[in-house]
Structure formats: C-alpha cells, structure tokens
Write a structure and sequence with these properties.
Elements (H helix, E strand, L loop, with lengths): L7 E5 L6 H17 L4 E3 L2 H5 L3 H9 L2 E5 L5 H8 L6 E4 H7 L13 H22 L5
Parallel strand pairs: 1-2, 1-3, 3-4
Helix pairs in contact: 1-6
Length: 138
Amino acid sequence: MDNAKRRVVVLPCSGIGKAYGALSREIAYELAERVRPEKIAMTCLPLLVINDPDAVRLVKENPVITIDGCPRECAKKSLEAAGGEASHACQTIKFFMAHKDLKPEGVTQLNEAGLKLAKLAAEELAQTVDRLAAGEKQ
C-alpha cells in the first residue's frame, strides 16, 4: 500500500460499564476526529469477533493500534484471533498513571478529568500514528 494513503487502524476495547473502557473509546475518537483524522481508520471490536470480511481485511492490511481498558487486553486478543497483529498496544491505565490528577469516571460519558486525559493520551499517541502511517515499525 502506498504510504501516502496508509491509514492506521485504531481499535479500542468495548469496556462496557467501565470507566477505563470508556476512556479507550474516547482516546480513539480524539485521534480519529481531532488529532489525526487524515491518518486514522476505525473499526469496532465486534466486527472482528464475528470475522466480518471488511473489518478483517482492514486490520490485516494496515498497522493497528489497540487501546485496552484493562489487563485482559480484549482488543489486542480479538485482533490476534482475527489474524491481525498490533503494531502498538497500550492500556488506558498507562495514561492515568502518568496523569494521576485526571481520574476518569463515568461509563457512558466521561467526567471532565476523563475527557482531558483522553485528549492528552491522543496527543501522546499522535507520534506513534505518524510513524506507523509513514511505514516505520514500532
């Protein structure tokens, strides 16, 4: 694939009912909508679980960043089960540990601290997105 048109797939966990799962989704939205919209593609985790051909092709043909809300790493494991490989895998707790003053709360909608943490995390991941979009390995 031409690197000028290469997209980086961001795959957040579902994390239903968990603040760190909501944080993973918010980080993905920040990357896709504000920080690097021209370089990001997204797919939802359930499409990989059911082996949707378009979702599987997307993750096999592009570099993928998984963002998990807990140590179970459902996004990363689901990607691997679909035959893909994470170019970069992270857990939201890593971002919280670096910014302990921003405790995310809320499961459907994050509190102000959680939204600010999502923005900071997306900014931190932007360099990784740039490298992967340029064809560099992690």
